[in-house]
């Protein structure tokens, strides 16, 4: 049975690498994939991994009907044995519905990859729809780690090195603290306390506050 599978995790846990591996394994056996992406850090029409691999992809714009795109492609003699959709958190809810229709009406497997929640720990609309519709949700096995060593489950955004909890939901960026807007993966405890690696380092270096003595 064809499936809609949502591979989800934090930033930097290997989602795009897995997407590229799935693409490699299938294409090396003669299968042909349709690869969708949106706002990859490497630029328009690219699916890239931090391990350095990159492949061409169809950039999904606002309002593009992914089901209609596939039907048009097939009716013009194109092939699509499977579909990969990276950065799926950026897709609109309707586009996830269209991917589900690709599975059900065209009988094609769809593998979607994305982060579930944003920097405020709120679901992206595309990810929410994937959780609602997917046949399976797979959490990636390679754990990204918080600075404390616990499994990272949340994505923090930093602006000028300081963790923020307000701002636009979508700001393309990387887990790079030197950029003006950066991201850092944290465990829930440290996300709730807004404690990034830099904050924790600063706290460790500051002298202990002396207990106040009663007069
Ligand atoms: N220099 C490196 N050596 C080994 N593995 C690396 C290196 N840099 C990144 N990685 C791996 O790549 C992962 C990020 O892969 P990527 O597919 O770009 O993540 P995602 O798409 O989930 O954001 C990291 O979690 C790490 O496992
Ligand atoms: C948390 C969060 C992330 N983003 C952006 C930052 C990156 O461009 C992508 C995630 O890519 P990755 O391959 O999973 O690292 O999403 C965002 O726009 N808003 C957020 O809240």
Provide key terms for this protein.
215 residues, 6-stranded parallel sheet, 6 helices, binds adenosine-5'-diphosphate, binds the ligand Cc1cn([C@H]2C[C@H](O)[C@@H](COP(=O)(O)O)O2)c(=O)[nH]c1=O, 2 domains, Rossmann fold, Wheat Germ Agglutinin (Isolectin 2), domain 1, alpha/beta, 28% helix
Task: Offer a concise description of the structure.
The chain is α/β, with parallel strands linked by helices.
Fold topology:
Blueprint (H helix, E strand, L loop, with lengths): L3 E6 L5 H13 L5 E5 L8 E3 L5 E3 L1 E2 L6 H10 L6 E4 L7 H14 L2 E7 L9 H9 L2 E4 L14 E6 L2 E3 L16 E6 L1 H5 L4 H9 L10
Parallel strand pairs: 1-7, 1-8, 2-5, 2-6, 6-7
Antiparallel strand pairs: 3-4, 9-10, 9-11
Bound molecules: adenosine-5'-diphosphate and ligand LXEULUCI.
The site of adenosine-5'-diphosphate (ADP) has 13 residues, from helix 1.
Task: List unreliable stretches of 5+ residues.
Answer: none
User: What is the H-and-E element order?
Assistant: EHEEEEHEHEHEEEEHH
Looking at the chains present, what oligomeric state does this protein adopt?
Answer: single chain
Topology, number of strands: 11
User: How large a portion of the residues is in β-strands, by DSSP E?
Assistant: 15-25%
| Spatial order of strands in the largest sheet | 5-2-6-7-1-8
CATH class identity of the largest domain: Alpha Beta
Attached small molecules: adenosine-5'-diphosphate, the ligand Cc1cn([C@H]2C[C@H](O)[C@@H](COP(=O)(O)O)O2)c(=O)[nH]c1=O
Assigned CATH architecture of the largest domain? 3-Layer(aba) Sandwich
Strand count, sense and barrel status of the largest sheet are: 6 strands, parallel
CATH topology of the largest domain: Rossmann fold
Distance between termini?
Answer: 76 Å
> How much is the average pLDDT?
95
Shape: elongated
* Number of helical elements: 6
Structural category: alpha/beta
> How many distinct domains?
2
As a percent range, the share of helical residues equals 25-40%
Question: CATH homologous superfamily of the largest domain?
Answer: P-loop containing nucleotide triphosphate hydrolases
């Amino acid at each position: 049975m064809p499936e809609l599978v949502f591979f989800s995790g934090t930033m930097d846990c290997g989602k795009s690498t897995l997407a590229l591996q799935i693409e490699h394994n299938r294409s090396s056996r003669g299968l042909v994939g349709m690869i969708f992406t949106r706002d990859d850090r490497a630029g328009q029409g690219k699916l890239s991994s931090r391990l350095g691999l990159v492949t061409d992809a169809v950039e999904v714009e606002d309002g593009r009907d992914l089901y209609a795109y596939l039907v048009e492609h097939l009716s013009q003699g194109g092939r699509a044995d499977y579909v990969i959709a990276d950065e799926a958190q950026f897709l609109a809810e309707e586009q996830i519905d269209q991917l589900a229709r690709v599975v059900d009406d065209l009988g094609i497997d769809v593998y979607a990859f994305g982060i579930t929640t944003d920097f405020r720990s709120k679901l992206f609309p595309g990810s929410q729809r994937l959780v609602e519709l997917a046949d399976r949700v797979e959490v990636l096995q390679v754990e990204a780690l918080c600075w404390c060593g616990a499994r990272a489950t949340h994505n923090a955004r930093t602006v000028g090195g300081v963790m923020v909890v307000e701002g636009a939901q979508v700001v393309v960026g990387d887990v790079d603290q030197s950029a003006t807007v950066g991201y850092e993966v944290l465990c829930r405890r440290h996300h709730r306390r807004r404690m990034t690696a830099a904050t924790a380092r600063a706290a460790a270096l500051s002298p202990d506050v002396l207990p106040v003595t009663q007069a």
